[in-house]
Amino acid sequence: MEQSNRFNSENFSIKQQYLTPFERKGLQKILEQEDLPKKYRQRIQIMLLADERKTQSQICQLLNCSRVTVRHWILIAKSGEVHNWNAFPLGRPKTVNDQYRERLKELMSHTPRAFGYPFRRWTAQWLSKHLAKELGIEVGVRHINRLLKEMGLSTRLKPVEIVDSTQSCYNSNPVVISDLSEVLPPNHSL
Asked: What predicted TM-score, i.e. pTM, was given to this entire model?
């Protein structure tokens, strides 16, 4: 008797619906939009089908999508985060935009001390940290260096040209050294 009750409770949790009637109605209304991007439509359909107790395999076949995608959106529905169906942007995020590039260029034209840092020179790591804090876009150190190179900038010190002072003197004012005894008069003593 006890086992049959346990079986029923397990069976109930497997067939449990994930969406509230309000969430279900809201998602169905969104599906009616004609200009809804295909990937957003797929996300909503996955959550609705999962709520209808379709298996991952069935949903994959119906929508022609991967198990990973189905699993992800079923977990979103299970966790009660259905309202975030469009919070995840489509495609690879474009982290670096023109605003980011302009701000990077502007930072390079000032010393880090102007922004409250104790050091004199920017490093790619500190530029990355500062821009992440300021613009909310995290970019790796290698990508910062790549962007700087594209702009003709660098965090490295420029090598200082050492000018040979003896050589430059000879080139601008040639000095001729000769025997002074021939030039001075005989009565003159040094």
From this structure: 0.44
Domain ranges for the chain: 12-84, 98-150
Q: Tell the burial category of 29 from Cβ atoms under 10 Å away from its Cβ (0-12, 13-18, 19+).
A: exposed
Task: List per-residue pLDDT tens for the chain, 190 residues long.
Answer: 444 443 343 444 445 588 888 889 999 999 999 888 888 899 999 999 999 999 999 999 999 999 999 999 999 898 888 888 887 666 655 578 888 899 999 999 999 999 999 989 999 999 999 998 988 888 888 889 989 998 998 888 777 666 655 555 555 566 666 665 655 566 655 5
